[in-house]
Each structure stands twice: as structure tokens, then as C-alpha cells.
């Protein structure tokens, strides 16, 4: 039996319903469950899964940023003489930044081409389990690609500016 209650005195209302049902059929077992509690319990697994996924996502983003930081630092150090020669010849910071960034953007593009269909398929199959679900649009994927490109630009730009500040003579001597 489902009963809609609109009362400010919930304990007395529930007790009144229990007494009324007991008067009608004393053998009937009264077991109350509120709908909002039932719905909350049914989504606990999804909420726990969301928290765990969020934690692992942050961890993987942090590890990826560390890898990008190390790789870009390594590439800038490896190409220090080339950067110094370009600097002496008159290349601008933008030219040197583009020289280093285009390889990373190419790799990021390949990663996105591989990752977006996989993530889209996994999201669609997960959302298919719900009675009411949304369609996944293109905006989250474009937004994530943009954020990834900005983070890459920031990290590589930081290493490029460090290389620009260095004296080119010291880079050419070593």
C-alpha cells in the first residue's frame, strides 16, 4: 500500500496509519518505508562508484600532468642547443613555443581520436541501464580536449620560457 502524507507531525501521522491498519486487519504486518529513503538507497552504489571514479580520475590527471612536465622538460633540455641557435638567429618566443608544441598537440590529437569513441561508448552503455537517461553530446569532449590543450600549452610554455631566459652561450658550450 502506498500512502501520500502531507503532515508536519510525521511520527503521530505514521502511528495513526499504523493504528488504522491494525483496526482493519490485526494480522497485517505494518512495515513503513519512505519513498525518498528507498530512492536514496537504490542510488547509493552509483554515488559510491561516482566518488571512486572521481578520485581515480584526479589521480590519473595528476600522474599525466607529471609525465607531461617531465617529458616536456626532457625535450627542452635535449633541444637546448637548437633553441639557443634559433634564439641567436632571431626566432621569437612564439616560434620556439610552436616548434615544441606542435609535436605535443599531434600526440594529444591522436590520444583524443582514440579516447573519445571509447569513452562515448562506455558512457552510452552505462547510461542505458537507467530508465531516464540523457544523451551524451559533443560539448564535454570538446571541453576536455580544450582543457588538455591549455594545460599542455601552459606546461610547455613554462619550459620554453625557462629555455628563453637562459643565456644561449651557456647552452651552446655544454
N-end to C-end Cα span: 84 Å
What pattern of helices and strands is seen along the backbone? HHHHHHH
Question: Approximately how much helix is present in the residues?
Answer: over 70%
Q: How many β-strand runs?
A: 0
* Proportion in β-strands: under 5%
Oligomer: single chain
Taking the sheet with the most strands, its summary is:
none
How does the overall form come out from the CA principal axes?
rod-shaped
Instruction: Output mean pLDDT.
Output: 86
Verbal overview:
This protein is rod-shaped. The protein has seven helices and no strands. With 174 residues, it is mainly α.
Describe how the helices and strands are arranged.
Layout: H1 10-24, H2 35-42, H3 44-78, H4 80-89, H5 93-127, H6 139-165, H7 168-173
List descriptors:
single chain; 174 residues; mainly alpha; 7 helices; 0% strand
Summarize the structure.
Helices cover 78% and strands 0% of the residues. The chain is an all-alpha fold and 174 residues long. The chain has one domain.
Amino acid at each position: 500500500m502506498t500512502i501520500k502524507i502531507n503532515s508536519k507531525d510525521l511520527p503521530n501521522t505514521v502511528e495513526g496509519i499504523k493504528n488504522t491498519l491494525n483496526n482493519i486487519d490485526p494480522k497485517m504486518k505494518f512495515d513503513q518505508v519512505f519513498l525518498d529513503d528507498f530512492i536514496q538507497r537504490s542510488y547509493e552504489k552509483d554515488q559510491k562508484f561516482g566518488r571512486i571514479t572521481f578520485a581515480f580520475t584526479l589521480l590519473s590527471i595528476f600522474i599525466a600532468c607529471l609525465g607531461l612536465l617531465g617529458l616536456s622538460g626532457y625535450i627542452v633540455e635535449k633541444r637546448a642547443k637548437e633553441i639557443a641557435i634559433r634564439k641567436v638567429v632571431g626566432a621569437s618566443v612564439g616560434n620556439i613555443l610552436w616548434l615544441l608544441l606542435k609535436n605535443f598537440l599531434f600526440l594529444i590529437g591522436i590520444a583524443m581520436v582514440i579516447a573519445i569513441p571509447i569513452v562515448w561508448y562506455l558512457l552510452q552503455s552505462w547510461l542505458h541501464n537507467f530508465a531516464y537517461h540523457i544523451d551524451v553530446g559533443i560539448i564535454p569532449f570538446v571541453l576536455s580536449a580544450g582543457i588538455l590543450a591549455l594545460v599542455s600549452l601552459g606546461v610547455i610554455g613554462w619550459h620554453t620560457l625557462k629555455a628563453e631566459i637562459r643565456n644561449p652561450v651557456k647552452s651552446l658550450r655544454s
